[in-house]
Amino acid sequence: MIRIAIDAMGGDFGPEPIIEGVIQALDEKQFLPILVGVKEDILEFLPQYYVDKVQFEEASDIIAMSDAATDALKRKDSSIFKAVELVREGKADAVLSAGHSGATMTAATLRMGRIPGINKPALATLMPSITKSKTLVLDVGSVTDCKPENLFQFGAMGEAYAAKILKIEDPKVGLLANGSEDSKGNELTKATFPLLKSLSGFIGNVEGKDIFNGKVNVVVCDGFTGNILLKTAEGAVSTVFDLMKQHIRKSLPAKIGALMMKKKVFGNMKKQVDKDEYGGAPLLGLKGCAIISHGASSSKAIKNAVFQAISYVESDVNTTIETLLEEANENV
Fold this sequence. Notes:
Elements: E1 3-7, H1 15-28, E2 32-37, H2 39-43, E3 55-58, H3 71-74, H4 79-88, E4 94-97, H5 101-112, E5 122-127, E6 135-138, H6 148-164, E7 173-176, H7 187-196, E8 202-206, E9 218-220, H8 223-249, H9 252-273, E10 281-284, E11 289-292, H10 299-314, H11 317-331
Parallel strand pairs: 1-2, 1-4, 2-3, 4-11, 6-9, 7-8, 7-9
Antiparallel strand pairs: 5-6, 5-10, 10-11
């Protein structure tokens, strides 16, 4: 049975949505949650029926969002550190946290270690697309200052993840630039371009719009650019829906039309762009699985993050990453 170490104390709203998400996941799939945190606080939100379906790992310390990321290595009784240690010690197959993302990334990278050939891990996220398949974007915040070899490794990891987890046959990989022509980009992307050409799925430079139009399955960028892209996209989606609501309220025919489209059209649209559907972002490149969820994650997001961790563990994505890197390095 797959064992997932879950930071039950992290997140903006305490243990309640995290435990509720775990319960929802247990109702649908078989796995062993190892809930890390203050047991008494966890039990407040865990119905008696589920007590024998989970394990507990006591941790009295909680790393606050305002704390430094490096605190994760110093405060060894924190829920984040103890959850990561369970994976490092082989007592869990994956770690999931909605707590301090920087602390989780720091602890996971330095305690779990990296896959051979990976210099720095990448945080990956799924973005909506007009096609059935979502677009994987990485990095979205793990490495703000990248070198060409980092982006090349991100491309290999993204291609492997798209193939093994997203089940996309022959995924297309693009390098985010300010134009699709081979000559476009800054010094970083121009130096990265020839390295990525060794990947079988690389199609060249892509623009921001290509993330959403189905042209590509994987988009590679540095963490600074990717994080801005992610937050801009989230803001744009929220603004579009707010504007739609404003205009619908002003018109009776629009209200009637909206009512008729509420379930099939708007419902499907909301589901496609809802970040809770993805649950969390995998930190690719580690010896193991680490899923990082948003601090404001709902129970639905936690449930889907658990499913994401299960899919990751069940796949051989890490082995595929190693193989891709070896093959690509031979072709460089």
